[in-house]
Design a protein that fits this description.
mainly alpha
Length: about 80
């Protein structure tokens, strides 16, 4: 059965921060382009821009995903 468009966009939204984290760690934030992230994720640049306004928004998604769990644990103390 073919996937529905919403399933595809949800999957891309989840996949892109993962891809960005890998590319940022390999090339550094400054040297990474949206094209690099899109290529690693196997999507178009347009798909990246559909979900994230720019590279900084993508970085925020990466940091929010990786650092928020740490802060939640501290808040419980």
């Amino acid at each position: 059965m073919a996937r529905k468009p919403k399933e595809i966009t949800d999957q891309a939204y989840t996949l892109l921060p993962d891809a960005a984290e890998v590319v940022f760690s390999r090339k550094g934030y400054s040297e990474t382009t949206i094209h690099d992230v899109a290529q690693y994720a196997g999507v178009t640049r347009g798909a990246v821009y559909w979900h994230f306004q720019d590279k900084y928004a993508l970085l925020q998604a990466v940091l929010g995903r990786t650092q928020l769990p740490n802060y939640r644990g501290i808040a419980c103390l």
